Amino acid sequence: MSENADQIFVLLRHWIVGFLPAGLQEIAGVVLSVIAIIAIFPTLFALAVWMERKGLARMQNRIGPNRAGPFGLLQPIADGIKSLTKEDIVPLRADAVVHFLAPVLLVVVVFMGIAVLPIGRNMTLVHMDSGLLFFFAMGASTELSVFMAGWSSRNKYSLLGAMRGVAQMISYEVPLLMSSVAVVMITGSLSLEKIVEVQNQYTWGLPHWYIFTPWGLAAFVMYATAATAETNRSPFDLPEGESELVAGYFTEYSGFKFALFFLGEYVGMLSISGLGTTLFLGGWSAPFAFLGWVPSWFWFFSKVLMSIAVFIWIRGTLPRLRQDQLMNFAWKFVLPFTLLDLFVAALWRFMSDGWARWVVCSAILLAVYALMGGVGMSRKHFGLRKYRYAE
Amino acid sequence: MSLLFYLIAALTVVGGLAAILLKNTVHCALALTVAFAGLAVMFLELDAQFAGFAQILVYIGAVAILVVFAILLTRNAETPKDGVYSRNWFAGLVIAAGVFAVLGWAVVHSTRVLPHETAMPAVTVLDIGNALMGRYVLPLEIVALLLTAALIGAVIVAMHEKEGAK
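^ inputs. structure came back:
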């Protein structure tokens, strides 16, 4: 019974595809899965938007939307209707073709990244041997869309926002990849299904998720930081900060194109959380062995939504980082720490199973973290400000 | 040669031609990105998954961004007034045709030089990793040294500019 609930979507697809002639079955299966993804992820996007507005509101001591539907649950629908009926303004001297293609490219690339995520047992849209590499390749293409949006608007503020955004995304791309290379090293495969399967084992009822190992915890923290910066979320949202650059690279977008950017950003957040849960939080595996009867896709979606809740929590709590602080943080702290984490993961792999490797790896990571923090703090001069002017 | 190959090849060639013939420099850079994407799809069609995704990651994700940054930061986004085609274009055409002829001859005659290669080998990322760390470790280290030298050089050039201005 629980296996049926677990595989219900796979069985449903099999049943629907069974009505068609044998030649069309494979392509119909793929089309059905694509339709499912296009239906589910925008729904999750609406839920995430609602969670964000209510969550941020509560953290800022106000209520948030509560008019449209009970508890404001229909607010995303109202927002959607508003964006669809707004006038689409394109500036006169803007580059019309590139201006149109930028949000389209963002949404296409973000949805393609979702195709390799294992949403449940046997529930991956495309099985690829190098699924992780495909996901990062798609992530790298989102930077191009940001640049296209900023440049085609013929607006100095958009261009500034776009250049800052692209610089930030490139800087944090390297720690993002490095922290997942540690996972690949320990698993021995780039395939996301294999990574989840390796984490699906239990010792004394506790799972083998990578976040519960010292190198995995460090890598997860670095991954979360880099993911927050990749999706331009606060505290790294200077490129789209409301008080700094109007709206950054999508200042000149109105109506449906703005809604597409919004969709692309939030679905990007969902997909990068999906990858984070696959790599570190065990994907679709249950937290305890005795909870294995709950369907696997339930665990995946609850982990993704919890990650979104943590994103929203961090947005409501931490102040925004300035651009140079952001870049310093990436190159001087996060990247060296991920390189050290690779070394510690290798050490973990080569020491035999036991309590010794836990102690050694944790000690190395904590010592270096404290050292780097100490060095960083000692270089800070809390005194009169020294100004550096652009030449 | 299947229909898919011709479609991908058409996309790549159109992208490359547009990169030369368009007036707006940033449009040229974006057309170059389309050409890169066409090449990546070509790799994927030949079942070289790692090469295809690495092409997207490196070329579209990094090189294309570098090209557009270079265009933006050098204030030459508009077409220069006296055209972009040089005066001795005929010599350039002859040299390019010569190089293409040599490369084409080498590729077409490779089946005679290596007669033992029959079917397409199934290369996994594991094989690439083993080869990089085993047989080709010296070229890997030399490339790493070159990249480090380039990085240090870039930092030194930027640093001297700052100190020189003071």
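Residues 122-166 of chain B form one domain. Chain B touches chain A through 23 residues (CB under 8 Å).
thumbs up if we can close this ticket
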